[in-house]
């Protein structure tokens, strides 16, 4: 059963978010531009996690502005964010990476074939394009999925060696808040 507060979050509207933003402006502190940072103050830490609004790495790790780069994608699959990792790495030179997936992930509930079927109905002229798409379904265990993401990054010749040796994977438990480390 959802608490009334959490139930209300599922129906948030953009205007409410804009009002919340406006309310924070009095306490806002300027954030430095890249040109104002030196290499030693760049965020070197990368977190790859799920886009699910129940799995918020800023809350899980009590992150502050500038401490980490967070990439969020359905299922928390690193395979879908490689280009983003590489482009950001060209600026900040990542030294560590956490891959965080979570219990009851939506990617364990949908199937790529079902998503493709719905898209083909919506846009029949794009069937060939749709057939080549991958949506990140998770069909095995979360542990195996985390390992697959770690293995993918470590196997890529494009990922820097320093980062490859500092990749760790975890499963965040939505009910307890705990983190289970997954070794690969």
UniProtKB/TrEMBL annotation:
Alphabetized Pfam families for the sequence: Pro_CA
Record EC number: 4.2.1.1
Catalyzed chemical reaction(s): hydrogencarbonate + H(+) = CO2 + H2O
GO molecular function: carbonate dehydratase activity; zinc ion binding
Swiss-Prot/TrEMBL cofactor(s): Zn(2+)
Keyword Endoplasmic reticulum: no
Role played: Reversible hydration of carbon dioxide.
Protein name: Carbonic anhydrase
Species of origin: Exophiala xenobiotica
